[in-house]
Every structure is written in C-alpha cells, then in structure tokens.
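Look over both lines before class:
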Amino acid sequence: MAPVNDAAPHILIVDDDRRIRELITSFLVSHGFRVSAAANAAEARERMRGLTFDCLILDIMMAGENGIELTRAIRSQNDRIPILLLSALGDTNHRVNGLQSGSDDYLPKPFEPMELLLRIRNILSRGSRSPAHNGFVRFGACTFHLGRGELRKDGELVRLTSRERELLRLFVERAGHAVSRNELMRDASDENARTIDVQINRLRRKIEPDPAAPIYLQTIRGAGYTLYLD
C-alpha cells in the first residue's frame, strides 16, 4: 500500500452503502489519497465543517438529502470544490441532471475502480490549474491569451471573429464545466440556436486536430459544451 502523507489530496466519500464506502476508501488509500467517509448528507456536512477536502464523491441515491440536492446546496454557497457524482441510474437524463446540478463529473455504477481513479485525477488536475497562467491557457497545439483574446496554433496566430473570441473566453473561464446552450444564445429563437451550432463548428475547425471528433471542445449531450485544457 502506498504511504499517505499530509500533503496528499483529501477525498470525502458520501454513500449510504457501507460496502461501497469501504471499497472506495481502501482503493484510494492504496493509491496515496487521504480519505474520509460519510453515510449521508448530514454527516458529510459535519465532516466539511471541520475539514477541508480536495474532492467530494457523492452517491445520488441516498435517503433524505440526495447527492444532487447536496451538490446544488454546495454550489449555491459559491463553493467550487470538485464533485464527482455516483449513481446506479446511468441513463442520459440522469447524467444530464447530475451535471446541471453543478457537479464536475458523473460516473454510473457499477464502475471499474481504475476509471474512478482516473476521473478523480482528471478533476483534481483541472482544479489545480489557475484559469490562465500568466494570462495563457493551453489545449493541444493551441494557446489562448485570455486578456488579449489571442489564439495561436503551433505558434501561428489564428484569426478569430469577435464572436469566436467571446465564446472562447467563456469556455476558458468555465474550463472543465458544461456551458449550456442557453448561456451561449443571445436570444431564444430557433434561428439563434442553429447559429450557435455553426459558431461551435467554426471554432472547432480552428482549435481541434479533427473537428469531426473533437478532443477539447466537447458536446455534453443535453447539458451544453465543455472545453478541456491540457
């Protein structure tokens, strides 16, 4: 078992299934994390009053206050702690509801422990980055200067329209989180909705290695779009 030190990320697991709590705890501790556990939302709140956590893993289907309700309550307090939701309900609607609640990721049960580990590491790596180091963010071959609105790909300046620059700034500021279509639309017309699709496709042609299979600016079905940084 890997040694755990005081500088290791501290994860809070909230699940009313004791067996799941113990299995996840054992696995994450073996990979160098510090782990605390709670059986319900009330117990989680008590843990959070006394300790600072680097990530929360919340089961959705809990008695009383469920994982989505707890996530919304945390986000209503402007707390941006990374949250990963777990649920035996893996269909698209439940995944979308989970992401819309403010969570950073959603993992259906049953899952492979290694996938959980990789998702946690991805969430933590996103959260550990400032939105822009020295004004710059990087994704793939691209760099974007948030202040100047300047995009370069392989070092070459890429021309952006004012609307593309506006969209890219928004995606960078919300990197790793879904930006809904309503937030991107300037009005609620169907024509404007189609315009968003065109704008996203044009932006992908400028930043993606293969715009038909985007890596960085991804569609989250039913929730919007998300930009992933390196």
